[in-house]
């Protein structure tokens, strides 16, 4: 098994106090890793450390693959006048020296990537005019143009309707089958159970491992600190949906 | 009618003024788009005011205006950076303190009894009287701004699109900010010598704000802003020629009128769209 990223006793944060502590996990090639935790529990912080935007305060972190992020699009400027193709093309920037502009070959790559994620038909549309699911796909395409081996998705399913979420999930499965590692921050326990590993985070790491081994009631209670409901007529527990303002 | 257009062109000073206005509009219009996206319109205004004493000193010394403006703007930027570091003083306050101090100093120099007459034109510009060296320096600065914008385009775009993740795709927000401010200083220098320190910001922000109303991509917006700037400049100079009004002020007025016209047109189009939509007879179309 080839390891794309591994952390040991990792702590990181913004001021003096760490926002996350005791984080120990690894992401292997072809794995989908769910990142579970309450809002404000440190999911985005962990993604930023993996991306290299934040330095670890303690512990070790090794990221061996090229890494790309798929942020929540509500945070980007949806009125900004760029096309979907422009956004995908930005994925070429990391390998270009600062004085070089993306060329025809990069443009070709970007078009292929949009085709690959199923939004080629909207390449020339303004990014902000796309639906939430399409925007996620365009940002994944940007990651493909970066040729990322490790993709970090920050709550990609929030705000998507069921069909959009399902087709995004199968795209993620395809990316993993190609051998990419995918870390997905999510609130959906049922999705997480279908994936290869789960990391439960509430300021400190609660658990990491295979979903069927890790996701029991005790872990979920510690992760979500009580915001848990039993689903009547099943063995499963669910998490109260996070509030988005 | 043809005479109406060609008559002013037979005058040397009008041809020079038109060249100056084209240079200001090319650099100011294109860069103005990034001024709008990076939210640095206040910095544009401040820089152009803080430049004033440098211009006055250059005029007093009889050297090209830009030769005084360049060190002037550098000293102002340095002063803003230094005062901004004083504990308890925000950046906004530092800018305000420096700008008023510099502007006051410039006024003191310009309005003293020993100053040669006409030096007040630095406030409102003298687009009709650029010297050869003024035009040459403007041309060099404008070209430098345009070339930089072409080279840096994708990094500026990535940062403006999403500042929080720009670094992950190899674009540094801090460097992009610094680049925009440096180019802004250059464009302000070009614009201030033609339009004066009070009106320069109009050529930087106005055409870009106008182009933003009806364009949907950054390159077309930059092109449209430059063309709007040139058109406003040409019309303003003709107004000044035939109406006997101040050229700089006429140009600034044309820029404002263009912006208001674009807003009105966009508003009218939206209203028409709504009217035609509400009268839409197609059944089952979800709104």
Features of the shown structure:
heterodimer, A: 245 residues, alpha/beta, six-stranded mixed sheet, three-stranded antiparallel sheet, 8 helices, 11 strands, 31% helix, B: 287 residues, mainly alpha, 11 helices, globular, disordered C terminus
Tell me what you see in this structure:
- The complex is a heterodimer of chains A (245) and B (287).
- With 245 residues, chain A is α/β, with parallel strands linked by helices.
- Chain A is 31% helix and 26% strand.
- In chain A, the strands form three sheets. A six-stranded mixed sheet of chain A has the order 5-6-7-3-8-9, sandwiched between helices. Chain A has a three-stranded antiparallel sheet with strand order 2-1-4, covered by helices on one side.
- Chain A is globular.
- The mean pLDDT of chain A is 89.
- Chain B is an all-alpha fold.
- Chain B is globular and about 65 Å long.
- The model of chain B is unreliable at 282-287 (pLDDT under 50).
- The chains are: A alpha/beta (245), B mainly alpha (287).
- Chains A and B meet through strand 5 and helix 2 of A and helix 8 of B.
How many strands, which pairing sense, and closed or not: the largest β-sheet of chain B? none
CA distance, first residue to last residue of chain A: 41 Å
* Structural class estimated from helices and strands of chain B: mainly alpha
Mean pLDDT of chain A: 89
Low-confidence stretches of chain B: 282-287
Helix content of chain A: 25-40%
DSSP strand tally of chain A: 11
- Helical content of chain B, roughly? over 70%
Q: Give the overall silhouette of chain A.
A: globular
